[in-house]
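Hi U.,

Before I forget, here's the chain from the pilot set. I'm dumping it here mostly so it's searchable later in email.
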Amino acid sequence: MLNKGITRPLWSLLLASLFLFCPASAKAKSYSITRVDIQASVNSDGSMTVEEKRLFDFSGDFTFAFQEINKTASEREEAYFLTDFKICEPMNCYRRLEEDQKSQADSDRPPNTFYVENREKTYFIKWFYRAEDQEKEFLLSYQVENAATLHQDTAELYWQLIGDNWEIPQANINAQIIFSTSLDNQTLTAWGHGPLAGVVAIPKNNLVTYQVDYVRPGTFVETRILAPKEIFNQGAKGNKTEAEIRQEEESFINQTIRKQKASSALNSLIDILTGLIPIAGLIIFIKKAIVFWRYQKDQKLPQISSSDRLWEAPSNIAPAQIESLLAKNKVLTPKSFTATILCLIHKRLLRLERSSQKHGFFKKDYFYFLVGETKNKQELDPLQEQVFNYLNRIGFTTIKDGHRLIDKALKLTEIANWPKKNHTAASYSYQFFKRLKETAFIQNLNQGFFDKKAHEIKKNYKPIIAVVILFFLQALLNIFNNQLTKTGVFGFIVLMFVLLAMIIMENRGEKLTGQGRQEAASWLAFKKHLEEYGQTKHDPIDSLVIWEKYLIYGTALGVSIKTLSQLPVNFPKEDRSLAHVYWGATTGSNLSQFSHSFASLGSALNSFSTQAASGFGASGTGSSGGFSGGGGGGGGGGGGGAG
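Structure:
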């Protein structure tokens, strides 16, 4: 078939430009902590045995986790002393590494091992494992030798169950503090510090429990318990009295109450605004919808002919204008970029050539390149000039093809590879295509294809949409924080509707003029003709100029390259010579040789097409109560993470 080979260079140009539009994506990994169970046993010698069990949910490959535990606390002078660290999974416990094995472990990450570093202010524990898209449960246990603080007339346990340096949130936190010594008829008093939704309870004489549904990064969960001093025979020395500690907690509670009242008043105001804002949004939407219907709603395209087909290109507008016209927006895809390069070949400013021999180490193949024709001076429209300048920015150079040197040549592969060459090239390419979209649209606007009043109205949508998005995101955030009231639910639904409607109206805000509708309908009719012409085989194209226009505008209209390559032609002798020079054909004078060279061209560029495509963070037993927002003076805490 005569033009079957043209499939390959067209695919080359399309896929090369597609690379410029489509950046590569990488699979990201993440993890969450979906459950935390902590049990602490307080002993008569003032020590405390702690077991922290966390359920990690990994997405991606993970090989280590770490946790830091603070040694010091602001509310006591003596540092905490921790010993007997262990890391276990449900079926096995990890081996603790020696001091001289730590540095190597950080690089090798041997599974089922861990190490501990006694740092200046913290204990640092790091363990190694293998996890990929799965859940893993880890148990960290340790002994706090001096957990209890013995004050003048009371004993205190002040300890952070969850520290504020974790890198991710934690959910479903449950903790039990068990006093091993019998208290008889004596009682415990307990407070909780942290998220206000937390609950502290004393279900038994010797048991204090804490429950928190969710803890954000930067937030701690802290226990403060007063117990009879007589049940301990050892402990760190303190100098406070029970009355002073209770006064401190009363102060924390009063602060929290004041904040809650202020927050309640603010929430009431927000609730009112939450109801008013959607109503205002609806009013704005109704007004905009009326304006849209009156000035921006497009009319149906006319029928061009009885067959709704056109055999000739309806005008000489630039290919990128056609895409913008039919989309009725500022759009640009690789097909317009490719079609514009074909225009430059049609104007004889470039020619498409194939190497005279095959190249490569493992799989030899021909390569194809563009050659600049400096002797041909042609007036270019703004879009053609921008594309031509872009190709010059990539750089025409001298390339070697066998025994010959070719000046002012640019390989098609270089067009695809150039944007990933460095940051400057990538930035320049982005700005180039942005300008190209703007230019194509402005050309259509200036030539009377787009309604200028509708275009001016469309400019007002973006600031309104931005404001609606801000309120919509606030409502969405309230959902995640479980703070959405019935009014808020109503507002969220209304804002979502208004936002979607405004985006649709903004996207469809450009309106074609009568001239624009005629032009768009004509190009669609011409596209139908091109899609069918190659199947009929009637009346072969006898002019290279006409064939080139079919090729250029067919590419811009998105007609398949296979269809374009099958267009029937019957060139006269002089047109065959031009086709050989400018469209990558090998030497030869008859039509059969020209057909064979194009078939070879299509086969040869298959490997490049594949390559281009692939490039492309309480008191007393039985009592319970909420948390206060104060505290922060307990030991322990710290943070952790995984990687």
